Amino acid sequence: MAALVLTATLLSGPLARAVQPDEMLPDPAMEARARAISKDLRCLVCQNQSIDDSDAPLARDLRLLLRERLVKGDSDAQAVAFLTDRYGDYVLLRPPVRPSTYLLWFGPFALLVVGGGILLWRGRHGTVGAEAVAPPLSAEEKAHLALLMDDKDEGKGRP
Amino acid sequence: MRRLMFLIPLVLFLGLAGWFAVRLKQIDRGDTPDRLPSVMIDKPVPAFDLPPLVEGQPGVASAELGDGKVRLVNFWASWCAPCRSEHPILMRLAGQGVDIRGIDYKDKAADGQAILARDGNPYAAVARDESGRTAIDFGVYGVPETYVIDRQGRIRYRQVGPITPQDLQNRILPLINELSK
């Protein structure tokens, strides 16, 4: 029985939502807009959850505020701007592309280009190939090697 | 040139280690990654007019700020434990003549009043922000938060979390002195 209850609880977990029925707007289309916007807004208390996901009181306040703005006739962009005016770009889970975020957006590609460039350069001018194939043994070396191989057998019984 | 290539990893390592050392030092001083920068810095305080915490006493309104006096605006609540640890520092500041306006954030009036009656009242005026909307206009994301307001009514500094004696010595008092000149 306890296992059953536990299973049911665990299964219902992902279905549970932070958005409470009393917060929802009567107009389903506008509610859908609010849900879509709030999925991309960071909860400032938990910082890695969207306000749509978070049970923090501030997240609830922000959800209600967002819905109020939409009801007042704000466009999606205006409603988001209302929050970034107060909390900055940090409130956006998807950071905008601007000079201060170029490193974030383009850094990985720059690393890829630099790394690929180094690989290409080494492939053309590098020593990888040359080092991999050792030059054949000279006659002198062959003789030395034969001696060593012999020595191994003769070495039996020595201290 | 070629012979020095083996130094590249060492240089990269030293650079990284240096950066870590700098950040650890900053975190030691309270500049932790969870402290978010405020976009309100150097902007005028948002417009608000909040009712008093105690009936009959003055509330707090944006119109009163920026009349030529440097002030602190402190968001707090009776249910907020860090606010209690900050309280003695606010009392000390008030004792030094700093004008602190308190905003009791999402609190029951009776609870807020009881705390001030028990621990003392450092505020020149205390208001209630029951809905938390004024706090959102300030960009508050948790109590306590403290804002330094300059003589023209602009926000010049935001303290996230309780004011520590170090914050007071290193940042807040020097800024108040600077702005009061």
**Cα radius of gyration of chain B in angstroms:** 20 Å
Name the poorly predicted regions of chain A: none
| Integer average pLDDT of chain A | 84
Secondary structure category of chain B: alpha/beta
Q: Tally the beta strands of chain A.
A: 0
Beginning-to-end CA distance, first to last residue of chain B = 57 Å
Quote the average pLDDT of chain B: 92
What is the fourth-level CATH superfamily of the largest domain in chain B?
A: Glutaredoxin
What CATH first level of the largest domain in chain B would be assigned? Alpha Beta
Helix content range of chain B: 25-40%
Q: By helix and strand content of chain A, what is the structural category?
A: mainly alpha
Number of helices of chain A: 7
Keywords (chain B): Cytochrome c-type biogenesis, Disulfide bond, Redox-active center
Protein name (chain B): DsbE family thiol:disulfide interchange protein
Organism (chain B): Nitrospirillum viridazoti CBAmc
Main location (chain B): other
